[in-house]
DNA sequence: TCAGGCATGTAACTCGTTACATGATTGC
DNA sequence: GCAATCATGTAACGAGTTACATGCCTGA
């Protein structure tokens, strides 16, 4: 049911069409939080409308339909936000690979980790730049957009991953040079 | 296909039954990396065996079947580990809620964030304790188990989340006391 | 005019969840 | 004997992916 609330949440920020929402997923949500394609989004929008949680507020060129959240939708969304489950659904292929690093020999493990260092550094730089731009263009004293909170979370997460990957490479090197002959049994 | 590799990876560490694997998911993978129930694990084990990537190596009481990874399975797993996709699948309901914090008013946002501070502190303490125990029981000079790498990643991730949530609460307070009258329009 | 992007949809398939179902073993 | 746990399975359903399908607008 998370897709339903992801859509309601995006609609709560501003009205949007299925096409808009698809692009929002690609740009922001997909990398950190949730993934969905247009083939899933359009039917769900129709269901949201059928359930009275969203409604079509404009029809434009090329069959474009702009949806907005309804009061009922807002109530439903708020209730979902304030009642988190005890255990969250997590599916993270990257972290899965970290878990399975133990199945590789040191050289292979290093080969997996090195791109992690570079990728996280690149993500970090991109995010920091867009945060700096946003911070300087925001009038002083204004409410910081909540998007700023998420960006900060992303920034810290990439920093953590970067630092960790460097540390992990170091750990592997140490183990490898200290006692390389213990390996290669079996 | 990630489930397939998660299972292969766990079998690469040691032979296990479907029942064992189900518990491993519950204990470790589920919270951080991937989730699966027994109803998905048993059929997939049968498929792994049919494809020659795993095989039954022992049959025990109560119909228990212990599977082990085959050489073909190891080759397949290694190839998967060394060829990561450009973009990872991420489904993280917790982070989704962070994104949608912007749809809540400051009081509601605080109500969402406060438990995050507490939960992450608790997870942090538990993880640190089990890491300390593992570190002191590991004979000095031995190869650090790769599980130690993941534990460290978990530790740092929870620390990051904890620090971020405190920072976010502070940001909300500041915005709320600086310019509370800007809100409540519309 | 025509390429590229806007815009929506659906069918077939696979993945994942929930619920139902069954029985064996162990320890008290 | 019986409760708890071990142990595996499947059917029905819902969620998510891939591929196919269609047509409209805008700008060069």
From TrEMBL, chains A, B:
Residues 90-172 form the Transcription regulator PadR C-terminal domain. InterPro entries: Tscrpt_reg_PadR_C, Tscrpt_reg_PadR_N, WH-like_DNA-bd_sf, WH_DNA-bd_sf. Residues 7-78 form the Transcription regulator PadR N-terminal domain. It comes from the Bacteria. This is PadR family transcriptional regulator.
